[in-house]
Amino acid sequence: xxxxxxxxxxxxxxxxxxxxxxxxxxxxxxxxxxxxxxxxxxxxxxxxxxxxxxxxxxxxxxxxxxxxxxxxxxxxxxxxxxxxxxxxxxxxxxxxxxxxxxxxxxxxxxxxxxxxxxxxxxxxxxxxxxxxxxxxxxxxxxxxxxxxxxxxxxxxxxxxxxxxxxxxxxxxxxxxxxxxxxxxxxxxxxxxxxxxxxxxxxxxxxxxxxxxxxxxxxxxxxxxx
Length: 225
Ligand SMILES: [Zn+2]
Fold this sequence. Notes:
single chain, four-stranded antiparallel β-sheet, 3 helices, binds zinc ion
């Protein structure tokens, strides 16, 4: 969804809350969307208390008023680049888990660029070229990427599903959203993804670095297939 209508529920300090939104707020390692709301630019989107999402608007235009119906449009080029990047990172995690049994320790993504840290010590010989080849083969395979929801208890019981600490999922979450790259990787995840791995394109590993014991960093970019 690139364009939607929402009703303004609150306005505070240059930020607007709506009864519904297609804007993705910063979270789960994925940066926020940008775009326009009622004709003014949206420069930041973040989660507030409960389900509230705050859209910070820039420029000098007037802010919409509470109860006003407004049109929101997300910057699709940025969002699609982030979706491609996010899906590429799940493929990377799946490949590294299946091939080397190593878990993620951290990461960061921007549009078509990312770094991810894994618990290697040290990196295997020829790692950069090998992981690039394996990831690109999985991307080219056109694996479907499916979204589903699992009851919290069922999700927590599945060790493979939540490789980060289970206590990162707040108690208030009754259902866990799952991203399934069919046949490769299933992860609890709140981010946005493309529909199939071939929509990502390809990755290029730019650099590998040691960030200490049991912590090796991979820098990559996402390029058109
Ligand atoms: Zn993710």
